[in-house]
Write a structure and sequence with these properties.
The chain is built from four helices and no strands. By secondary structure, the protein is mainly α. It has a domain at 19-69.
Length: 117
């Protein structure tokens, strides 16, 4: 008896066209241009049945055909955890107190002369 789960090579390959889709495309091609081709003609402002589409019609066609050529980006949430701790106090620390409290052993200060080289 077979077992379930993911198996390599199982299922339809990515990008493969189903029989229904292939039939629909073949039928649309046999009758003339595909719907997205027609909409792209409107977007480009081409003459259709002796009329030029208005700007509003061109924009509406572009909006309706856009998802087929540029998919929407998904919104993501990202959380970044850092080791930075904020300390709020009304008493300022001296440089030495700060270094002792936060475990800093040395401070490297760039030489202003190094910038001139």
């Amino acid at each position: 008896m077979g077992r379930g789960g993911k198996r390599s090579g199982a299922g339809r390959p990515k990008g493969a066209v189903s029989k229904l889709t292939a039939t629909a495309v073949a039928r649309a091609k046999s009758t003339g241009e595909l719907p997205h081709e027609f909409l792209l003609r409107i977007v480009r402002g081409e003459m259709i049945d002796g009329q030029l589409p208005s700007l509003e019609q061109r924009i509406a066609a572009a909006v309706s055909v856009a998802p087929y050529f540029a998919p929407k980006l998904a919104a993501i949430e990202q959380r970044i955890e850092t080791g930075i701790v904020a300390v709020v106090s009304n008493k300022p620390l001296s440089t030495e107190e700060f270094m002792v409290r936060y475990g800093i052993t040395e401070v490297k200060v760039p030489s202003p002369l190094g910038l001139l080289r």
